[in-house]
Design a protein that fits this description.
The longest helix has 16 residues, at 275-290. The N and C termini lie far apart (64 Å). Helix 6 (115-128) packs across helix 12. The chain has 17 helices and 20 strands. The strands form three sheets. The protein has a nine-stranded mixed β-sheet with strand order 7-8-6-9-10-11-12-13-14, with helices on one face. A six-stranded mixed β-sheet has the order 15-16-20-17-18-19, with helices on both faces. It has a five-stranded parallel β-sheet with strand order 3-2-1-4-5. It folds into three domains: 4-91, NAD(P)-binding Rossmann-like Domain (Rossmann fold, 3-Layer(aba) Sandwich), CATH 3.40.50; 98-304, 3-Layer(aba) Sandwich (UDP-N-acetylmuramoyl-L-alanine:D-glutamate ligase); 313-444, Protein-Tyrosine Phosphatase, Chain A, CATH 3.90.190.20. It has 446 residues and is of the alpha/beta class.
């Protein structure tokens, strides 16, 4: 009898997992409480995978040998509680993909901020260095689908805490932890330590031949690293001291040593600007050196990398005013990093769905760099309360077009208009991509 796996959620990770599970001979059933996107519905029909949408039939779900839960479904969900109560094992998509990846290897990247940029840059360097690799996980293609349809020797995977919550044997050969700041606390009973534990799960199955690359300047990582024992080789990256192995920046030079390889490069040659991107670049550089990419290839790739869409993306300069799209900044820490890299007077577009934001984290940077705030959200009270004494101009707008026009009105030649909302986008937009796209369209219409 084949093992019965039920997949909760029919998005990219759910359908990717269903395709892989069916290929591997599981008895698969997909259940989605909402409606499926057309392409995913066609996928399931094409692979003859039974599914339901708009409902969850608990009898069918609780009959599973195993449940693969999409990362968006939390533990408070009644169905998840029923599955747990019945003792049915719950796994994530990366666990299923790991099981069937054969002898392929994994670079797994997690962290509260910077993980998307670090993942994209690591993949860019590996690809440039002619490694047979794929970019998977949170950043694009489902890991499970890639394993099913186009397996590679290496997978560069962006991994969220939600995916790490339900791993059992998943083990990256190289793990990167960029930083840990308060995020998604609504999913962790509002306990920061639960979220921290979740992030450190990336190293829990690592072995002696594996590598753990981590930010040694991040206070939360430093404070907790001894609480979560790991067996892999530590490769810290830092700007505060010179570790024997790992990476550091001193006097404008990045230095990387992984044991068999030494690399030096000027930070002024990095394609990505800002201190936060120097950390991301160190992490990606160390990972690439660890997998044996040649030094010159790493240098060339770091210089030729293009920033990601919606992450500190330069849009245009209109009458001397520069526009930057950082729509992917959905928490206050991301906005802190964006402001930290601004070197011109800034008009900041903020707002959206607040995830319990503490705006005091960016108050000093706002005082120093921001001349006006344009709010773009349904409820902007908290932003007004946080900055009314620090910024002379704060206005409310109700669309990307209005926000861009207001910001342009306040700007003078030599200023930067920065969309870095520090909030989720679901009040006025479909998602952060939609928000960024509408912002860019509005800039083009000026």
């Amino acid at each position: 009898m084949s093992k019965r796996i039920v997949i909760l959620g029919g998005g990219e990770s759910g359908v990717g997992a269903a395709v892989l599970a069916a290929q591997q001979g599981y008895d698969v059933f997909v259940s989605d409480g909402g409606s499926l996107k057309d392409n995913y519905r066609q996928d399931l029909l094409h692979h003859q995978i039974p599914f339901e949408e708009g409902t969850h039939t608990s009898a069918k779900i609780l009959d599973a040998d195993e449940v693969m839960k999409s990362p968006g479904i939390g533990e408070k969900n009644e169905l998840v509680k029923a599955i747990r109560a019945k003792g049915i094992p719950v796994i994530s998509e990366i666990e299923l993909a790991y099981r069937h990846k054969g002898d392929s290897r994994i670079i797994g990247i997690t962290g509260s901020n910077g993980k998307t940029t670090t993942t994209a840059l690591t993949y860019h360097i590996c690809k440039y260095g002619e490694l047979d690799c794929a970019l998977v996980g949170n950043i694009g293609y489902s890991f499970a689908r890639q394993v099913a349809e186009d397996p590679k020797k290496w997978y560069v995977a962006e991994i969220s805490s939600f995916q790490l919550d339900d791993i059992v044997t998943f083990r990256p050969d190289i793990a990167i932890l960029t930083n840990i700041t308060e995020d998604h606390l609504d999913r962790y009973e509002y306990k920061f330590e639960n979220y921290i534990r979740s992030k450190f799960r990336i190293v829990m199955n690592q072995q002696e031949g594996d590598y753990f690359i981590y930010n040694d300047d991040d206070p939360v990582i430093k404070e907790n690293i001894n609480r979560y024992p790991f067996h892999s080789n530590p490769l810290p990256f830092t700007m505060q001291h010179e570790p024997n192995k790992g990476g550091f920046i001193r006097n404008g030079q990045m230095n990387i040593e992984t044991g068999n390889e030494k690399l030096q490069m000027s930070i002024y040659d990095f394609a990505l600007k800002g201190i936060h991107n120097q950390y991301n670049t160190m992490a990606a550089g160390i990972a690439s050196a660890t997998v044996g990419i040649r030094k010159q290839k790493i240098r060339d790739a770091i210089q030729s990398f293009e920033a990601l869409e919606h992450r500190m993306e330069y849009v245009s300069t209109v009458r001397g005013v520069e526009f930057v799209n950082d729509s992917k900044a959905t928490n206050v820490n991301s906005t802190w990093y964006a402001l930290e890299s601004m070197d011109k007077p800034t008009i900041l577009i903020l707002g959206g769905v607040d995830k319990g934001n503490d705006y005091s984290l960016i108050r000093d940077l706002v005082k120093e760099k921001v001349k006006a705030i344009v709010c773009m959200g349904v409820d902007n009270r908290k932003i007004h309360e946080a900055f009314q004494n620090d910024v002379p101009l704060i206005v409310n707008t109700a669309s990307a077009e209005e926000a861009v026009k207001a910001a342009f009105h306040f700007a003078t030649k030599g200023d930067t208009v920065l969309l870095s909302p520090a909030c989720a986008s679901f009040d006025l937009f479909k998602n952060y991509e939609d928000r960024g796209k509408q912002f860019k369209d509005a800039v083009k219409d000026l």
